[in-house]
Amino acid sequence: MSDMPMSDSERKFSELGTSGLQAYMGYVQEAYHAELHWPGVQPLYSRMRRSDPEISVVRNVYQALARSVRLEWQIPDDASDDDKRAQEFGEQVLNDIEGGPDEFLSTLISHVPFMGFGWWEVVLGVRSDNWKSPDGDDWKSEHNDNLIGIRKLAWRDHSSFVKWNMDDKTGKVKGFVQQDSPNSQIIIPLNRSLHVAFGDTQNPEGLSPLEAVWRLERIKYGLEVVQGIGFEHAAGYLDVTVNGKLTTSDETALKRAAKNIMKAQEGNYAAWPQNVVGELKDVNFSAAPSILEAIKYFGVLKLMVYNMQWAALSSVTGTGSYASMTDSSQMFITVFNSMMEGLIAQVDAQLGKRIFSLNEGAFPGMTRRPKLVCTPIEKQVSLSELAALMDSIQWMTLSEDDIKAIRRKTGILTENVPTEDMAVKKKIAPATEPIDEVIEQSVTNWKDYIQLKDPNLYAKLSKAK
Questions:
Q1: pLDDT higher for 193 or 458?
Q2: Pair (235, 91) in one structural domain
Q3: What is the CA radius of gyration of the chain?
Q4: I need a labelling partner for 461 at 20 to 30 A (CA). Which of 137, 319, 325, 421 fits?
Q5: Total structural domains in the chain?
């Protein structure tokens, strides 16, 4: 490397500072505790993601909501024909992926918000009947236009992660170093992959909320151990009173009875010898209620890390109300939509850009490439709120699409407007028909409609009224 100082023109385009990321030789050490550094933290995070009760609740809710998310390619409002063709091509690429977009979304949402990042190898394929995969895969596209598509988004599990292939100065990731025994260690380059981070996009490992949950889990686990020991010690004791002298056989029978009756087993009983009285004495565990409340409290805190404390209101905690649960759950939907928007934006920046760059020239009239977005989860609107909304906007002219949206929101009515209703709406009589018939056939907002279409008729109707 030359020691010659850079000229002003060279310095103008140079990056002078560093990322500040605590990374060395491909290992990032940003977590506040050594146990939370990758790749050593993988077994801990995996156990929490799979078996921790509160985290399992969050994961199951995330996966259920992901089924309602749809990936779409967004094009400009004044789209050209090639913009529309590019959009159609993007939809075809998503449907050609092995497992489809739904499987990808399920993997994305069940791993990335918990582990902090996710890595997929993007395996390409040619959309041609004559093309054969070099690794023997029997994948075939449903289209035969010789364009390049995606045959597989191959998930690379965190258990096989070794370290990052990265520039320690800039923090820029170049690849994923994988070791999946008995296979040899390999580097999967970023330009052939999809890398999604959660919480901190400046850190290739993201910022997993489980880093905060780990501390809460340790405290909650300690309290559960104390509670278990306390219940064991407070299980009671056997008080035996002997009036008189016991024979050897009586002593043997007494020991056997005491041993059996203290076992945690259904159907235990004792046959006491003559002159022997036995009684189980209960011991009050006075600290049990406060320990239980502390356990519940830390359980709710773990849910709060994922903005899901509403799942415990009026059920686990015994406090809260339907109104607060409704407000919190609506806030959760807002946060979930924002989270999905951020994750899919990363997918678009990598996958969307790459797929259209590989097929450059296929859509010469494209004004800008389609942008991959996700449809948000719609909030639930109560019928009373919907009725209040309809009452306040009754002066507005509603289109057929508006009516369909309102009917869909009710959750009761079918989305499609019945034919007879639409026929009545279209039955606005021309000015030549008798005024009485027009009034009888009037519909919502007929005043605005007629005033716009026929001012003379509107004046006559106003006088008639």
A1: 193
A2: no
A3: 34
A4: 421
A5: 3
Structure tokens at 2: 């030359």
Shared domain for 172 and 291, answered yes or no, is: no
Same domain for 217 and 269, yes or no, is: yes
CB-based burial label for 83 (10 Å; 0-12, 13-18, 19+): buried
The answer to whether position 257 is within a domain reads: yes
Identify whether residues 445 and 337 lie together within a single domain: no
For residue 71, the cross-strand partners are 374
Q: Model pTM?
A: 0.74
Tokens of 383: 């019928």
Contact 97, 151 (CB under 8 A): yes
- Higher pLDDT residue, 449 or 392? 392
Half-sphere exposure of 137 (CA within 13 A, CB side): 17
Residues pairing with 175 in the sheet: 165, 189
Please say whether the beta carbons of 28 and 38 come within 8 A.
yes
User: What does the alpha-carbon distance between residue 23 and residue 174 come to, in Å, rounded to a whole number?
Assistant: 14
Residue the block writes with tokens 């320990």: 291
Of 142 and 347, the one with more pLDDT: 347
Confidence class for position 338, pLDDT limits 50, 70, 90: very high
Peptide bond into 182 cis (omega under 30): yes
Asked if residue 56 and residue 35 are part of one domain, the reply reads yes
* Residue 113 resides in a domain: yes
pLDDT value at position 418?
A: 66
Helix/strand/coil for 334: helix
DSSP class of residue 159 equals: G
* Residue 325 falls inside a structural domain: no
Q: Rounded to an integer, what distance in angstroms lies between the CA atom of residue 65 and that of residue 110?
A: 11
Q: Do residues 289 and 164 both lie within one domain?
A: no
In a shared domain, residues 218 and 265: yes
Domain that holds residue 301: 212-306
Per-residue pLDDT at 13 exceeds 90: no
Cα separations in angstroms, 424 against 401, 405, 438, 453:
17, 19, 11, 17
pLDDT of residue 422: 47
pLDDT-based confidence at residue 440 (cuts at 50, 70, 90): very low
Q: Is the domain of 186 the same as that of 65?
A: yes
Is residue 317 one of the residues assigned to a domain? no
Q: Assign residue 146 a region (left: φ > 0; alpha: ψ between -120 and 50; beta: otherwise).
A: left
Q: How far is it, in rounded angstroms, from Cα 253 to Cα 279?
A: 16
Q: Which two tokens stand for residue 133?
A: 């995969």
